[in-house]
Prior knowledge:
alpha+beta; Zincin-like; 45% helix; globular
Amino acid sequence: MLKYTANNLSKVEDIFKNRGYILRYEKGNFNSGYCLLENKKVIIINKYFDNEAKVNCLIDIFNQIDIDFHELNESERHLFEQFESKTA
């Protein structure tokens, strides 16, 4: 069973960073817990969230933005599949 650890959060963050996105953790009144500035490839997530909420936000964002799932390498695809199966 995959856990919401700092190490797994870092792996998910790396997927975005490797595709040119800037991740920032800041306080704010985000209705969904995050803010996505699409034109600038900036993602802002509520810094007070725990690891599970941060990972879930990143998965939600991944499903909204234009990253082809087939662009991911095998380990990245496997990681997302495991997290998505937990949230389904």
